[in-house]
Amino acid sequence: MQLGMIGLGRMGANMVQRLLEGGHTVAAFDRNPDAVKESAARGAVGCASLGDLVKALKPPRAAWVMVPSGPPTNDTIAQLATLLEKGDVVIDGGNSYWKDGQQQALDLAARGIDFIDAGVSGGIWGLKVGYCLMVGGDAAVCKRLEPIFLTLAPKDGYLRVGPVGAGHFVKMVHNGIEYGMMEAYGEGFEIMRASEFGDKLDMRGISHLWNQGSVIRSWLLELAELAFAGDRDLAQIRGYVDDTGEGRWTVKDAIDFSVPAPVLTLSLLMRFRSRQDDSYAAKVVAALRNEFGGHALHPEPVDHSRA
Length: 307
What we know:
- 34% of the residues are buried.
- The protein contains 14 helices and eight strands.
- By secondary structure, the protein is α/β, with parallel strands linked by helices.
């Protein structure tokens, strides 16, 4: 089957390779010409522009957008709308907000172009083990594109979860849950590290142990084992954690739906905390405790390197 892939970053390039290995024909475009050359060297049809990509595909065309959510995705889809024809389909595989996808589907439908929102999970490991695909869109259109989805996904790793918007929505909630799980693991390992056994505990060994029949076994623990294997004390890693939007959207939607989601909400807030060298709010709390109760203050360490 033919597919156009727009965006050849860590995910997109590997998806192109997996599709090529599965016998599909892929036209590939990225703003970085070196990324296009790399995919072309693996067998893709390298394209210098979106226009070239559309010309390289036979109708009915399918163009997969795999760029960052927000303006990059919106601008790309807007350009495709002017290049594609009736009966073609746009697949958004980025982590876009599901309501944005619904609006884009309406805009494209006015031109006779179909829209599919595909939540993609698997990260840099997807090339080897496959990508979990949560797809939303018209059932007939999804069925037509199934050869693509089934090649990208592992066994039972693809599901049409509902109409347009459902794919991004399910992926958003998936990532919200991911926030909570990672925060729980992080706190657990920190408690162990802070204990009297801390220096003696083998975090890599414990990560491996917990994956042997334990009720908290998971792929994340496998990744923790790999991380501790490479850096026993994670000394080379700063505890600064970004968020890419999905956690915020999950919490916002939980509020809109009147659903209590304290774990997911606090895991998001802890990511904000990770970006502070010191918390001003904590300074205020420390000052107040000192004022009303005479509780001891802990002065900031002096940075003699700046003297």
